[in-house]
Amino acid sequence: MVVKEYDSPVGLLYLASIGRELCLCSWQGLASCHSFLRQHLEESDYESEWDVVDRARRELDEYFDGDREEFDIPLKMFGTEFQKMVWEALEAIPYGRTESYGQVARTIGRPLAVRAVANACARNPLAIFIPCHRVTSASGRPAGYAGGEEALQRLMQLERLQQEELTGS
After folding, report:
1. φ, ψ for residue 53, nearest 5 deg
2. Contacts of 123 (CB under 8 A, 6+ apart)
3. Which among 23, 25, 121, 132 is annotated as catalytic?
4. What pTM did the predictor assign?
């Protein structure tokens, strides 16, 4: 397992990979990251893991520079089947768009599971790569975000500004 810091425009992130897949992009401290990884430790391919983390850093750089809207890096999702279903639905939310927790719940065929969707978003171990920052409350307002209110606003502003440039609005 490899854990590397990434000093992003929205704060210090920790990136980690296991094997050939990124499994963590988190604002949580290094101790929390290691605890998470120990729970999910598998056979390690140390050299590939460095490559994955370095690739993740490059893709994040491109995203923050406004040159990337989708990530190509393979992701390893550790969570319950329900959480994985939610996270996959989040990946389908287009850049510069938002959906409510209720919309995500309907998308996954569980319209009454709004709180469970919110909990899955809160436990997303791959911030930014799995864009939980694109999920809002029913009123359309941003909800709590693991990276904090400032990081959430900056991510939303980045995508909104890029979307405006592309559409000419």
Report:
1. -65, -40
2. 79, 83
3. 132
4. 0.86
Taking the C-alpha atoms of residue 144 and residue 28, their distance in angstroms, rounded to an integer, is 15
Confidence band of 88 (pLDDT split at 50, 70, 90): very high
| DSSP secondary structure letter of residue 11 | E
**132 an active-site residue?**
yes
pLDDT digits (tens, 9 = 90+) for 38-66: 676 665 544 567 789 999 999 999 999 99
CA 100 to chain CA centroid, nearest Å: 16
Taking each helix axis from N to C end, the angle separating 114-122 and 81-91, rounded to the nearest 10 degrees, works out to 80
Q: Angle CA(35)–CA(155)–CA(136) in degrees, nearest 5? A: 85
* 132 pLDDT higher than 70: yes
